[in-house]
TrEMBL record:
GO function terms (MF aspect): D-arabinono-1,4-lactone oxidase activity; FAD binding; L-gulonolactone oxidase activity
InterPro entries in alphabetical order: ALO_C (IPR007173), FAD-bd_PCMH (IPR016166), FAD-bd_PCMH-like_sf (IPR036318), FAD-bd_PCMH_sub1 (IPR016167), FAD-bd_PCMH_sub2 (IPR016169), FAD_lactone_oxidase-like (IPR010031), Oxid_FAD_bind_N (IPR006094), Sugar_lactone_oxidase (IPR030654)
Lineage: Eukaryota, Metazoa, Chordata, Craniata, Vertebrata
Organism: Geospiza parvula (Small tree-finch)
Protein name in UniProt: L-gulonolactone oxidase
Known EC number: 1.1.3.8
Amino acid sequence: WVWGGLGLVFWAISRGFGSFLWGHSHCFSVGFFGILELARQQGKRVKVVGGGHSPSDIACTDGFMIHMEKSPTLPVDKEKLQVKVEAGILLSELNLELDKHGMALENLGAVSEVTAAGVIGTGTHNTGIEHGILPTQVVALSLLVASGEVLECSAAVNAELFGAARLHLGALGVVLDVTFQSRARGFRLKVTFPSTLTQVLDELEEHLRNSRYFRFLWFPHTENVRVIYQDPTSQPPRSSSSWFWDYAVGYHLLEFLLWISTFFPGLVVWINRVFFRLLFSSRQESVGRSHRVLNYECRFRQHVQDWAIPIGKTREALLELKAALDGDPGIGAHFPVEIRFCRRDQIPLSPCFQRDSCYINVIMYRWVRPRDPGNPHSGSAHSCTRKDLEQMFPEFPKFCALREKLDPDGTFLNPYLEKVLF
């Protein structure tokens, strides 16, 4: 299923499945415990839904669904540049609150209409070889487990659980609040310029040194690449955006042509080449607030596959993918294939566990699965089972054992988790 936000909620209600509960996490000590008790009495399960952005069915349930809307920002420590937020706050709201205090998150994903707990639940990431996935910015959290106990977690308290809960899949309990490490706010200079796939792969190490937030877009069926740097700057805000080129051509016309191409796949090659020449073949610069530059619009309805591979395999994987697409004229791969980079971490279910990684993000209307995909982003659609995940994540059995200890009756499970955990 691909359900988003209220669509998922109204579907569950209209079909008569379970109950949907809107809750403020102010009431968690009483309200959530009552929900857990009621679920036990009725033999139902409990799931928390965030912004509904994930295209996987990780939050779907026929039991009780909790949505912690309108969660406020809690204390801000300006000296440590840390902020404590309730789990249901959207990052778009948090970005504005931090800006008022002269602060900003060090890194953000592509979109901010996601909740604080959801971000760490699925391992949201962006790019920057000096930066980890977003959960690495979490320094503490509170977790309501199936017994009704609230556990405080950090590197110093419940350290093992803290490590697991920073990418929890919604399987360990209900995250009540999250403390993020932030930085002083500022502007970022976004520089984009054209290149070729061969050239970018030849100069990959240089690009990684040149920009702390380097990524690139590859246009399948071509050699064309758009390189993107997004780095802190003292320059004043400026923009090179154009409604005609960005929206009339780059959105409405492009979406129409991509829709046509679903009936005539041979058009995709032409579309990729022409739109690169029209929109991405020149150098462009802009300056804006950190969160505005790091976020970008996902304008089309998309099917997303996001896989992390060891960074040393970047060239091999992309050339193999290019050869596979070029060798099958029946496949029309819509652009872009987005390539991003993240620093290694120690989070058990992180795709970057103990290795610097390259993320290959295929965004298209029709998906082509790589032959050897790597580690999946848990927020994107994938078909991996427990056997697959045990091979990808060395700490996966420990995570499953910890989940079993915290939730022996499976209160927080659903069909998606049963597929990947058992």
